[in-house]
Amino acid sequence: MEKIKMNTPIVEMDGDEMARILWEEVKKQLVEPFVELNEEYYDLSIRSRDETDDQITIDSALAAKKYGVAVKCATITANLERMQEYNLKKMYKSPNATIRSILDGTVFRKPILVDGVEPLVKTWKQPITLARHAYGDVYRASEMLIDEPGLVELVYTKANGEEVRQAVHEFKTRGVVTGQHNLDKSIEGFARTCMNYALSVKQNLVFSSKDTISKVYDRRFKDIFKEIYLDEYIEQFSAAGIKYEYCLIDDAVSRAIKSPGGYVWATHNYDGDVMSDMLATAYGSNAMMTSVLVSPDGKYEFEAAHGTVRRHYYRYLQGEIVSTNPMALIYTWAGGLEKRGELDGNEKLQRFGQLIVEAAKNVIEVRGIMTADLAKITSKHDPLVVTGHQFINLVRTKLEQLCEAELAEA
Ligand code: NAP
Ligand code: MG
Q: Whose alpha carbon is nearest atom 41 of ligand 1?
């Protein structure tokens, strides 16, 4: 088969440890033999970030902004332990935080469903995609310990000097306070990104909050979502046969457990942090979660939700055979190429991205071959356990057949 051509580059952000090893293999086995890869490569490994004083991360994010589609491998987030391990010059910010702030994006997390790995929640037939607002609230809060009696107030000093005061609490005994904020601009970007995403996947959108208690703060989110929906999206939604709904967070949780899935659930920053782990676990395995960062102006960065799989990497370095699941990394490349194809009107490339996914699912669903993490939870009898390397080889064989059958003469 002639290799598929690409008109616009895709941005590749390489990463660390076990994820990096499988990442490269996915590219070598499942992408390069089939596609004349047109890419800009950025090495975001911890050593390369250290050598460039983290400039490489900023450059990669700017490239993603320029070209519109990036695929990212998992990367080490520096902490004290990692600083010693890699002898780093400083404790760099998480690359994901840097990229997120440059793209001003929202993260959508979606589990990979395969026959043979059933969700713990029996009613779930389709993935629930979780959209987490990525700015403010408790993540940018200012907090204070109150160790003596006294009055705590919110004081808003306007640019013209005028003061607005509001009591928080008159403390008689010790306690704590917090001040949180958010910005209309960020909430608006979040709402639009969620609505664009729901349209692109043709699924209903739910935004959940607690406006019955938080009558100003959470109410603001609710109002902005509603306004943007009515002003800009309602017609497009109805044409696509989908709807937007607001829902109280506690109700949204119980509905999630009772529903068949297949919708987009937008949450506040903290709710998303908690709920995405609940969803990942309840859908089967945190190795089976994909993640895509989408900016309000439609730039996409795909990645696996899991980390660098450090424990496996150390064992791998000792020469042990490890069975690390490459599914989410495979989906990352597949998602990136499919989106590149879609944006460029390159149907062959778009279809190829889908075929990668079909080939990978086929190995698990039809042949019952999988990595150790899935073998532990599968409902299939006698699954055959393989390494990540072997799994990728099997996907390649299947992918060759699928491409031969479908793309060769198209
Ligand atoms: P992790 O890499 O997600 O791995 C945690 C555990 O989950 C693994 O030890 C393994 O369990 C299981 N697991 C995760 N992915 C798997 C896969 N593909 N196949 C099989 N099992 C898998 O999280 P971590 O060990 O806490 O973090 C390691 C590094 O990753 C850290 O430096 C962190 O900063 C970074 N990180 C990066 C990102 C990102 O770039 N997006 C996200 C999270 C963490 P068993 O050992 O029990 O088999
Ligand atoms: Mg979390």
A: 74
Q: Residue count of the chain, please give it.
A: 410
To test ligand 1's pocket by mutation, which of 309, 371, 376 has the most ligand atoms within 8 angstroms of CB?
309
Tell how many helices (H) and how many strands (E) occur in the chain: 15, 16
pLDDT, tens digit (0-9, with 9 covering 90-100), for 131-187 = 999 888 888 889 999 999 999 999 999 999 999 999 999 999 999 999 999 999 999
CB of 332 closer than 6 angstroms to any ligand 1 atom = no
CB 290 within 8 A of CB 276: no
Summarize pLDDT for 237-271 with one digit per residue, the tens.
Answer: 999 999 999 999 999 999 999 999 999 999 999 99
Q: Which ligand has the nearest atom to the CA of 139?
A: 2
pTM comes to 0.89
CA distance 6 to 17: 29
Point out the ligand nearest to the CA of residue 132: 2
Whether residue 1 has pLDDT greater than 90: no
**Angle between helical axes of 184-201 and 217-228 (0-180°, round to 10):** 50
Question: CA 236 → CA 145, 195, 229, 286, 295, distances in Å?
Answer: 49, 10, 10, 34, 19
Q: Is 324 close to ligand 1, i.e. is its CB under 6 Å away?
A: yes
Percent of the chain whose pLDDT exceeds 90: 87
Q: Which ligand is nearest to the CA of 328?
A: 1
